[in-house]
Amino acid sequence: MAGPARAPLTPFLRAGSRDALRGSETAQKKAVLVFDGVQKVYRRSGGTDHHVLRGVDLEIERGEFVFVTGASGSGKSTMLKLVYRAEMVDEGRILFCGRDVARLTDDSIPFLRRNLGIVFQDFKIVPTWSVAENVAIALEVIGLSSRLIRQRVAVALERVGLSGRGGDRAGVLSGGEQQRVAIARAIVGEPALVLADEPTGNLDPALALDILGLFEEIHASGTTVMFATHDRTLLDVRQRRILVLDEGRCTDVHTGLDHFGDELDSDLDDSAPRAIVAPTRLRRVG
Amino acid sequence: MSGSIERAKRGLLAEWRLHALSVVSLAVAFVCLGAALLVVVNLHELKERWGKTGRASVYLKDGAAPAQVEALMVALKGTPEVRGVRYLSPQDARAVVFGSSGGDATLKNLPQEAFPASIEIDVAPEIAEAEVQGIVSKIASLPAVDAVETYGTWTARLGSVLHGGTLAAAALAAIVFGAVLAVVGSTMRLALNRRRTEVEVLRLVGASDGFVKTPYVLEGTFQGALGSTVAVGILAFLFFFIRSRLDTELTSLVGLDLTFLPPLVVLGMVATGALLGAMGGALGLRRLTTV
Q1: Does domain B54-150 fall into CATH 3.30.450.20?
Q2: Which distant-in-sequence residues (6+ apart) come within 8 Å of B106 by Cβ?
Q3: Is B198 at the interface with chain A, CB within 8 A?
Q4: Which chain A residues are Cβ-neighbours of B200 within 8 angstroms?
Q5: Would you tell me which CATH number, out of the four given (3.40.50.720, 3.40.30.10, 3.40.50.300, 3.10.310.10), belongs to the domain A31-104+195-200+226-286?
Q6: What is the pLDDT of residues B270-279, one digit of tens each?
Q7: Residue B88: beta bridge partners?
Q8: What residue in A sits closest to B212 (Cα-Cα)?
Q9: Cβ B205–A138 below 8 Å, yes or no?
Q10: What average pLDDT does the segment B200-213 reach?
Q11: Percentage of chain B with pLDDT > 70?
Q12: FRET partner for A182 with CA separation of 20 to 30 A, picked from A133, A253, B24, B175?
C-alpha cells in the first residue's frame, strides 16, 4: 500500500521574503499557525493512554502574541513540540505558513525550524561557546556570509541588551543573560514565529518580567510570539490572547482567566509576589 | 565547509584528552599493522633477491666421459642466459667442503665418491625463475648429468612463507580496521554525549544532518590520519634503531639489507587511517540525537 504523500523538500520561506510578507496586507491577515483537530496521545508504561491534546483547533495570525497556559503536564510543551516537529500529531494537522508540519519529510524539518525561533526554560545554549557563536549558529546553518552574520548577530545582541558581550563565554553568564542569548539566537534569523517554552521558569520574578518585556519588544517589531507559561503573574501583566490547556482541551480566552475559577488557579503558579506585577486586572469578555 | 572545520577544531581542542587517547590507541593498532607489512615487504625483497640469484650446480655421473663433459661445457657457454661456467672436479669439491667445514675429521674420512664432479653455472640475474627451471630441465636430460640443483627449492619455500606472511598481514589488517572503526566510533559517541547540548542546539536552529555530522567525521578523519602517522613514526624509529644494531649480522645471514616501508605504502597507511577514521566517525553518529 502506498504511503501518504510527502511534502517536497523546499524551504518554507526564502531568505528576505519575510520582510516582504510583513508589508503585505494579505500576508498579515493570514494565519501563521493553524491547529486543526489535533490529537496527541502518549502511551503510559501500564498500557493506558494519556490524551494530552484532544481535538485542539486554533489559529494564530501573523503578528499576534499568544500565551499558552495550563497546569504542569497539561500539554503546553507538547503543543510547541508538535509545531517544531519534535513530536508528531496522532490525528489532525498543524499548518505552519500553510504547510502541514506532520507531512514534512525528515530532510525538510531543518527548513521548518529555520523559520522558527525557539526559546526554552533551560536556555539550551552551548556554555563553551562565546555569546556571539551561540547566536551566530542560527545563521551559519543557512549559510550566510560571515560578514552578514557578524552584522546581524550584533543587531540581535543589541536588541536583547547584550551589546558588546559577544566575546564572553556563554557559560559564565547569569541565568537572565543566558536566556537573553537564547532569545537573541531565536530572533536573529527573523523567524515567522517565536516559540517560548516556559522561558522564565528558571528565573526569579523580576527577571521573568524583564524577559517577558523583551518578548513584547520583539513582538512589537512584528514577530509572532507563542509564549507557554504556567506563571499566572505573567499573564496578568498585559491584556493578551491566552490559550488555556486543561485535560487535553484548549480554550481560547482572549483576556483574563477569571472564569476558569479556583480549580485552574490552584494549578497555576501564583507564588510570584503580586507587588511586582502590573496592577491592571484583565477584562472578562464574552 | 570552513564552518565545519572550525567546529571540528573547536571540538578537538575542547576534548583534547579524549582525542589524544584515541590517537594513541589507533597508533598502537597501526604499529601492529605496519610491523606486519614491514615483515611482508622484506620477505618479498628476499624472495625477489633469491629468485634472481641465478646459480645452479650440475652434478655429473661418475662414469661421464671427459669428452661428454667438455661438450656440455661448450654447450653451456654457448647458452645466452648463462654468464659463467666452471668445472669442479671431485678433488676440488672435497677441498671446498673440507675448507668450509674447518677441517672436520668426519668429513675428512668420507670417501672420494661422496664428492661428485660438477659444473657450476651462473645464470644472468634478470632471468626469471621459470626460465632457469627450463634450462635446468634441459640440462638434466643430458646423459652425462646425474642431477641439477638450484635455489628454486629455497625460493619456493620462501614463497610459501611469504604467502603465509601476507595472509597473516591481511588478517591483522582486518583486525586493525575493525579496531580503528571501534575506537573512532566510541570516541565520537563519547564526544557526542559530552556535546549533546551542542547537537540539540544545532537541531533546533535547523541544522541539516550533514551540518551536524560533518565536524565529527572531520574529527574522526584527523584522528585516523594522526594515529597512522604516529604509528609510521614509531615504526620508523624502531626499524632504524634495530637495523643499526643488526645490519651486518642480518646481511650476512640472509644476504639482504632490510628495507623500510616504501613511500607509497606509508602514504597508503596514512590515507587508510584517515578513511577509517572518517568511517568510524560516521558510524559512531548513526544514532545521532534527534530533537
Answers
A1: no
A2: none
A3: yes
A4: 124
A5: 3.40.50.300
A6: 999 899 888 8
A7: B118
A8: A141
A9: yes
A10: 91
A11: 88
A12: A253
